[in-house]
Design a protein that fits this description.
The protein is mainly α and about 450 residues long. The chain has one domain: MFS general substrate transporter like domains (Growth Hormone, Chain: A), CATH 1.20.1250.20. The chain has helices spanning about 15-35, 40-45, 50-55, 55-75, 80-95, 100-105, 110-135, 140-150, 150-165, 175-180, 185-215, 235-245, 250-270, 270-280, 285-315, 320-340, 345-355, 360-370, 375-385, 390-400, 410-415, 415-435; strands spanning about 405, 410. Helix 4 (about 55-75) runs antiparallel to helix 5, helix 8 packs antiparallel against helix 18 (about 360-370) and helix 15 packs parallel to helix 17. It is globular, with a radius of gyration of 21 Å.
Length: about 450
Amino acid sequence: MSGSLLKSRSGNNYLIPFVVLVSCFALWGFANDITNPMVKAFSKIFRMSVTDGALVQVAFYGGYFAMALPAALFIKRFSYKSGILMGLALYAIGAFLFIPARESGMYYPFLLAYFVLTCGLSFLETSANPFVLSMGDEETATRRLNLAQSFNPVGSLLGMYVAMEYIQARLSPLSTEERASLDDAAFNAVKEDDLAVLVGPYVAIGVVILVIFAILFFYKVPEERSSGAGDKRHVPVRDSFRRLFHNVRYREGVITQFFYVGVQIMCWTFIIQYGTRVFMGEGMTEQDAEVLSQKYNIVAMCIFCVSRFICTFLLKYVRPGKLLSLLAVCGGILLLGVIGLENRLGMYCLVAVSACMSLMFPTIYGIALKGVGKDIQLGSAGLIMAILGGSLLPPVQALIIDLETVWGFPAVNVSFVIPLTSFVVIAVYGYRMLKIERV
């Protein structure tokens, strides 16, 4: 980590604050990737369709969308640190709401808990991402954000491991069909036991969040006054929106981010359904197939993590737009394998897609916000609101999966046409920014 990456023109050295922020990047990675397998888990626990289970992602990423703009205005009025503290507080509240949700024994209180939790994540991302961008020269901003985001998969790996070892492996081994055959009394007994297993890790992370909140509350964090964070003067929001809307780099970046987040969530959520079909075809039980699929998901995240560091290094020599476009094309080719193959080779292709995705979120973010100046908080909010793609696109894929077969092919395979289309959008954006905007 070079000093030039973390030293601003005003002389502030951001090494220690940067290290503190890394924990926040890991925290929302944990939340994202303990949640993705819950689509399958809730579908089994409540005897629901994949589409109904995907409402977890609607609530989860809907919170990002709903709170991003209020978070930006809050940060503009107060400070990045205040925004991060607010995010941690909401994150903890959402985690603890799993306790009354479990007591209710119903599905929708869990959706409310996810929504509140991700309102906190929205505050965290709206605060932390532009704060990292401001921690040095603009020319190194995209590389600096990629470096910070490289620690996000560490939290993601922990979330996946907890989901596999402390939730999926401890749920009742009854298959979906066996649960459907239970009478109401037997089903409710199994459901209560499963919900108790599911809630534990969320309560534990809530306690960890409170500890980090206390540490950060007493730590003095320097901020660049030119960034606009903490500016108590009247904020010309309408003018900011106008400037951002007419900025092609930014406007198309928001659209691209919408599709990228959709790709990420679809590939990491429905790898469970994809793998379950493949491994049950090899003679495994449903629960064993789900646990093995989650192990493949962890491998995918390890690849994602390593690839993030490699791509961060490559950005020293390759323009962001060019690397973004090349990786999107590679991801699309791998998804053709996911769609066309009906065995472990398709699963290998789906795992390999993560190597292509690793660069994308922070790179799109950095490209879109380059040169926005004092509009960075609202600009960041727009890019966080684009996370709505993780809420809207997975249910579309789930609708296809629920068909079971499409034109004689497994519906779960065909459903990956949706992320394939999204990669096309990303490739076009990278190409346009390379050729038109000269990123």
